[in-house]
Amino acid sequence: MTATATATATAPVPAPAPVPKTKSRSHPRARLRRQRWKGLWRTAVVVVIGLLVNLPFLNAICTAFRQDGDIATSPFSFANGLTLSHFATVLSGSGYDFPRFLLNSAAIAFGTVVLVMLIAIPVSYSIVRLNFGGRWLLQSVTALRLIPAMFFAIPFFLMFSNAGLYDTVPALILANTFLNLPLAILIICGSINEVPIEIEEAATIDGAGVYRSLFSIVLPLLAPGLVAVAILVFLFSWSDYLFAVILSGSESTPVTVGAAFFVTSAGIAWGNVSAVVVVSVVIPLVFAIFAQKYLVRGLSAGALK
Predict the structure, then answer these.
(1) pLDDT profile of the chain (305 residues), mean per 10
(2) Where are the domains of the chain?
(3) CB atoms closer than 10 angstroms to residue 270
(4) CA 88 centroid distance within chain
(5) Which of 1.10.150.130, 1.10.3720.10, 1.20.1260.10, 3.50.50.60 would CATH assign to domain 85-299?
(6) What is the pTM of this model?
């Protein structure tokens, strides 16, 4: 008993377990300050990237409002002040009918949008809902977009020349429709896939046919995708240069080809060229700004299920 008691008395007492340290929470004001600095840095990076991407257009704007002497002296000189003479020359005093060039570009762009919509909507619905051609047809149509446009330039020139459509606005509308149709079908197919098929099945039970389901039920739900297609087709058709320079002459000249008229053997009228660039870019830019939210929604259609 005595030995046992002695051993118990002399046994070492275990040390208490260490208390885990808790991370000190930062003050709410300090955390808010750090978040604010992060937001400022991100904004600064986005602004710098935006300036670098848009530097050519910003340079064109500056050049369009500068005197010819300042343009020849320095790329950033405004010593002689601002001027609107380049815009006046382009619109009325250059000897070229630039207002008609703008109207031709508008007619080509809007005509292409309408024709692409009339073809792409029923084709996309047939591929997705009626299984017409299956995935093979969609992949084949999309693959046309991967072929360089120059591959079709000479055949189009020969075809439209033999048909008597050379140097006409309808010829450029048909050429741009062929070029933009694969992209339109791809986007609209993605938008149709996002529409629940149960809605159309319920309409079919109520007696609606295929055309009634398409025009009364599906089309209103495809509005963001259709707006996205319209914006992209409009921008691509407006800025087309390859088909415009090959298929147009003096009657259907768009503004993209008209800008090259100031590049002559005597020199380049940089002020007038910049004025043409500004005028031709502002119109589609304003159109895209007002519809940008539909563009984002339409392009993301079908990306997430």
Answers:
(1) 50 55 60 78 87 84 83 74 82 77 92 94 87 76 80 90 91 92 88 84 80 82 86 90 88 86 76 85 81 68 49
(2) 33-73, 85-299
(3) 18
(4) 30
(5) 1.10.3720.10
(6) 0.77
